[in-house]
Amino acid sequence: MSRFKPPLPDLQITFYNRLHELRESFLIQALLHAVSTLDICQVDKELSLFVPKPALQVTVSWGLRGELLFPIPYLLANQPQLLGYYRLLLGFSQKEFYGTQYGLGPMKSMEEKGSISSRQRDVLPELCKTLCRSSEYLIGGVGKLSTNALHELTLLTLGAQLRGGALNLFGAQATQKVFELIKTIVTPAITESTPRSIELRNAAGRAVAVEFANDPDICIREKLPSGNFRNLVAVEIRVARTIPIFTTV
């Protein structure tokens, strides 16, 4: 018998499968494929309009096409999901990029749904000018970039996003398992039940509610004669990989 237990790469398997999907959506492979289907003269024309000449010259001196770093309306109008490529390249999570700080929230559906509305299309020039300035800061802060380096930068951002998404999924599954466990225990006393709450009568005949919540994950409260509720138990769930661990406070 070995003294060691093999760690299971479950998250990495999840990442691999998801990565395979995203290559076709908003990683550099998707960008290169999209450009290959477009009128390259129009691409070059818009690059000259939206990217300052010194920044474009630096990019060309690195042996890179300008659209690898700088978004243009023509490209995003034809492939809206590629907004996600530029977000990843610049190092932003979805929450931060589409939050209130930068005013980019209305553009989120381009990345998520791969579609573009007439209102979004109207503001594409302004969006691209703004993000081109961000890319200028990027090239000014690095020594030199290559196609491989661009791919690696997007993957660095994507890795954190995928890990957060996977852990959120595990957390939701763990919360559901704990909720179902509680439901099994109190089944004889249940008076009403929904997918997110349980109402029951305790041994003293008082009404008690067990509810999903955001913080804490599960809340158990007693209904008082006044109609108000008294908090009894708060359940916080922590997930170690796919194993739920819960504590009460």
Strand-helix topology:
Elements: H1 10-22, H2 28-36, H3 40-50, H4 53-61, H5 73-78, H6 83-90, H7 94-97, H8 108-113, H9 118-122, H10 124-140, H11 147-186, E1 190-194, E2 197-201, E3 207-212, E4 218-223, E5 229-240, E6 243-248
Helix pairs in contact: 1-11, 6-11
Query: What assembly state would you assign to the polypeptide chains in this entry?
Result: single chain
Helix content: 40-55%
Major β-sheet profile: 6 strands, antiparallel
Series of secondary-structure elements, N-terminal to C-terminal:
HHHHHHHHHHHEEEEEE
Question: What does this molecule look like?
Answer:
The protein is of the alpha+beta class and 249 residues long. It has two domains: 10-145, no CATH class; 169-248, no CATH class. Helix content is 51%, strand content 16%. The protein has helices spanning 10-22, 28-36, 40-50, 53-61, 73-78, 83-90, 94-97, 108-113, 118-122, 124-140, 147-186, and strands at residues 190-194, 197-201, 207-212, 218-223, 229-240, 243-248. The chain has a six-stranded antiparallel sheet with strand order 1-2-3-4-5-6. The two termini are 40 Å apart. Mean pLDDT is 86; it is low at 242-249.
